[in-house]
Amino acid sequence: MSEGGGPPPAVRHRKKSAGDGGPRQNRKSKFSSGAGTGGSSPSVAQQHQMWARVVLMVAIAAIVYFTTFRTREKKFATQREVLELRSQPLDCSRAYLEEISKFAGCIPAQCGRFVSDKIVSTAEAGILLDLARAGFEHGQSSGGASILDLHSGALSQGTQFVNIYRLPEARRVFTTQHINVYRHVKEKVRQAVADHFRLSVDGLHLTHPTFFSRLTNGTAKTIHDEYWHPHVDKETYSSFHYTTLLYLTDYGKDFTGGRFVFIDSEGKHNRTNVYIEPRRARVSGFTSGAENMHHVEQVTGGIRFAITISFTCDPEHAMGDPKMTLEQDDGENGGVPDDINQTVP
Ligand SMILES: O=C(O)CCC(=O)C(=O)O
Ligand SMILES: [Fe+2]
User: Fold this and answer.
1) Is 78 left (phi over 0), alpha (psi -120 to 50) or beta?
2) What's the pLDDT at 340?
């Protein structure tokens, strides 16, 4: 019974002796250069053992490294999806919470982010794309990032900015339809932010800078062209409390690269990149604190158009609808605000 129950002792013995030079000794001697190689067999076995240890140690080091310094990738919204609403609640960063607590009615039920393809129609986005193209015909950065701010009139030109409302050739560049759609869309987005974060819409104001962006893979000429740096909006633009983005062109069709990426850090070494692939008429919204650190990937081909529509809870930083004329030119700098340098992160 005892013999039949387990593996035969001989088999067990052979397995155990596999590393002790027994059967291997013979196999090895076939490849040895000279006769009488019996004496070198133990050292070959030792070498094997040593290599096994090295391989094991490297494997352990790799496992430790990849579990300690890990970057995970998550897709929050792909270009192909048509989303009613996708959201992710987050804890507010301490500084954000401290500041927003001063504005009753404007404190989010919870910090976080959302994406929806149902707030703005593709027809509206098409008209805004037309507006953007018409505006950028009168000025573009010589690097990869151009902006057009309808409120101040700031428009990239070469390595600088001009006021589009001062350009005679741009007099009638925007149509009544452009203007009406811009205002209407901005209101819908404002309402969506108020609904999502459960705010009183009256306490939520449009703020500066709110602008169109046109991104390409052109070589950066100034710091304003370097749109890909990770940042926190509240730190880049102090008046921001809620950031929204409206995409006017499609990732993978109109341009490549250029995904929006939230960078979620868990501890010192672990991070998760959360991707939003731009889609025409897609709106994303998020609280502007450190809980929503983000960046835009470099565009590798084509042209990416988007609008950054920003909101503040602070009435002192509130901004009205754009007048789209030179009337609003009240600055020494031809209406281009002094802090234009903040317009592009
Ligand atoms: O265009 C985007 O997707 C993001 C732009 C951005 O991060 C910003 O305007 O602060
Ligand atoms: Fe940003």
Assistant:
1) beta
2) 42
